[in-house]
Write a structure and sequence with these properties.
The protein has helices at residues 7-18, 36-48, 73-80, 93-102, 125-136, 156-159, 172-182, 188-198, 202-210, 214-226, 232-241, 247-264, 273-289, 297-319; strands at 25-30, 63-66, 113-117, 142-148, 163-167. The chain has 320 residues and is an alpha/beta fold. The protein has 2 domains: 7-167, P-loop containing nucleotide triphosphate hydrolases (Rossmann fold, 3-Layer(aba) Sandwich), CATH 3.40.50.300; 211-319. The termini are far apart. It holds the Pfam family DNA_pol3_delta2.
Amino acid sequence: MTYLGHDTAWAQWRRAMAGGRMHHGWILSGRRGVGKAAFAMAAARELVADPAVPQPVGDHPDIRYLSHPPKNDDEARKRDSGKPYEIARNIKIDQVRALQRRLTTRPTLGSRRAVIIDPADDLEKNAANALLKSLEEPPSGTFFLLIAHRIGRLLPTIRSRCRVLDFPPLDEGDMQVVLAREAPQADSKMREAAIAAASGSPGAALEFVELDLGKMHALMQTIAERGDPDFALRGRLANAMGSRPSRQRQLAAIDLARAVVTDRMHSVQPAGIPALVDAHGALARLAGEAPTYNFDSGLLVMEIGTLLGNLAASRGAANG
């Protein structure tokens, strides 16, 4: 699959590879869903490939991929049997230590090894500190690619030891191309809503279609425009969310609300700016907490609805 919007990142990466000394630590920074993980895997394969050695088509022994483990032993058994499973909230220190033990050996096929951590901003504090030691004294031939959806959550000491590759949001034309290719079942109205809600993230747009988030998005827009004094719209929003939504759906709901707030920034009057700033800050906090907190879905909907309703109230006050 060809990912759009990566030309600049590829140019920087390949220029570094062609140089005399390749930096050992890289942060791939950008919104969730812009294709950073796919880039990391393709870049890692280029990095470790030895022209004199045939390279495997599937898993590569010199690419280590670290992400959320299964939530518990039961979920691990589901994973091992090929069933869907629930992941843990964070990447654990035991995973980082196990990785570090593997890094004491030489690469298998060539002289280089790549480590991908996805996402590095979900490392436990102790895991992040353990990783920092490897970044400070990287094993010979080892290169780290740290995927970050929210680079500000990484330790400053980790950021200072890495080069940053930025992955900007896609423009509307590229988003249309992605949806036409990956979600041909979506009609024009659904595609327009998905693009509006995704803020330049093709992954978020595809998720919008796959999770059928159109109703939630429309309700959020209505609350932000008209308010919800009798809580009726928030009740409908809770129904659209579902009684036991997955963490993916909760994250998607927060992202939708942030998109609604961001969209209103283009036409806000000065008196409405404080409410927008407050709402955006609160939703950013929720987005940061969502991977590690078990939110009550009803309370989450109420908080989102209240933040969006405050936008309508501030607009009414300004107009009055």
